[in-house]
Design goal:
By secondary structure, the protein is mostly helical. 56% of the residues lie in helices and 0% in strands.
């Protein structure tokens, strides 16, 4: 795993929001960036480093709703029959 613990920027932002300033400084130390400034400035530095490190590989989560088939619907019955045969 990378030093950020994730390749998803939303997950990383959430983790940063939950961290104390000491944790943010420790992460900067592990990544190799200078941890100076306020909590907000350190978070911004970490986000910039995350984006530059993961450029081109940042994943996006796409929510696909689950397909719900109704066994009482005639069209769905045919689909359910096909799925059972697989």
């Amino acid at each position: 795993m990378n030093p950020f613990g994730t390749s998803n920027i939303d997950v990383f932002r959430e983790r940063l929001n939950e961290m104390a300033i000491v944790d943010l400084q420790h992460m900067c130390e592990n990544i190799g960036i200078f941890a100076s400034g306020s909590r907000m400035q350190i978070k911004e530095k970490l986000l910039r480093e995350f984006k530059s490190t993961n450029k081109g590989s940042i994943s996006m989560l796409i929510n696909n709703p689950a397909l719900i088939l109704d066994p009482t619907n005639p069209k769905h019955q045919k689909t359910l029959k096909i799925l059972r045969e697989i």
